[in-house]
Amino acid sequence: MTRLSVARAAAGPDVKGIRIPERTLELLRDLVLTETGMFYDDSRLDFLRDRLAPLAVARGFDSFLDYYYLLKYDSNAANEWVRAIDALSVQETYFWREIDQIKALAEAIMPQLLANRRWPVRIWSIPCASGEEPLSLAMALEEAGWFGRAAIEIHGSDASEAALERARGGRYTGRAFRQLPDGLREKYFDTDAAAREWTVKPDIHRRVKSWTRVNIVQRDEVMPFATSDVIFCRNLFIYFTSSTVMQVVDTFADLMPSPGYLCVGAAESLLRLTARFDLRELGGAYVYYKS
């Protein structure tokens, strides 16, 4: 009996047309953790199952274990991981989210960088999702007049290619604007009333130099961008184990220049995980500082 036929013989409950042999979800969870850094505890295994089951069915599998073997061993696994990460990604974001750090960039961090003769200033947003965060950074810097005074590079990266395609397209619906002042929406976006969408204007869209797929736990993919002066890595570590967070933060600390500024989400803390960054208050916001 082959390995796949054994898997089919050990059938579990049907879920959306596919069987789940015993311990298969745990195997997938461990594989996803290794590949992406995202961890699904027992209470979230149903989420993992529901997001990946349609991909397995689309491949013609009737056992989830077949899909596990595809992701782990197949020569075409890299392409399937693109689809799997798209399915697992939670793209909940909006313009002007956690605005205090964005204002601190424009009001406190930029003057410090230029005082240290940093040129050009490189800013990296990861995960950038569908583009709201790097475009918010661009708008804030534009409003503060920095693009006329300094060379600035903004880069947006995400593990989800589907999210990056939306970012490159620059089209957004009403929920993305729930915190952005109306005046800024009118200034930086064109309205398509029939479609109930807004398209970011080319001048501000071009302020983001690149939209690049990056898996943050793959050091070789991170290296070209982690040399940035400022990294916005917000609301990602809540999905990681402590060891994965330390791995990512150590990579940042190894590669960022000094001084370097790391912004994480309001619900995230690095204080018990690393001594390589100091927590400082800058411009009314808390930022991790590499001295």
Short description:
With 291 residues, the chain is α/β, with parallel strands linked by helices. The chain has 12 helices and 12 strands.
CATH fold name of the largest domain: Rossmann fold
CATH level-four homologous superfamily name of the largest domain: Vaccinia Virus protein VP39
Helix content: 40-55%
Number of alpha- plus pi-helical segments: 12
CATH architectural group of the largest domain = 3-Layer(aba) Sandwich
Class by alpha and beta content: alpha/beta
Main β-sheet description: 7 strands, mixed
Please indicate the percent range of residues in DSSP E strands (runs of 2 or more). Answer: 15-25%
Average pLDDT score: 92
Q: Characterize the overall form.
A: globular
Q: Tell me the number of strands.
A: 12
Structural features, described:
The protein has 291 residues and is an alpha/beta fold. The protein has two domains: 3-88, Chemotaxis Receptor Methyltransferase Cher, domain 1, CATH 1.10.155.10; 99-290, 3-Layer(aba) Sandwich (Rossmann fold). It has helices at 3-9, 24-36, 45-58, 64-73, 77-88, 99-115, 132-143, 161-169, 182-188, 202-205, 219-222, 242-255; strands spanning 14-15, 18-19, 121-125, 152-158, 171-172, 189-192, 197-200, 208-213, 230-232, 260-263, 278-282, 285-290. It has a seven-stranded mixed beta sheet. A three-stranded antiparallel beta sheet has the order 5-7-6. The protein starts with a helix and ends with a strand. Residues 1-12 have low confidence and may be disordered.
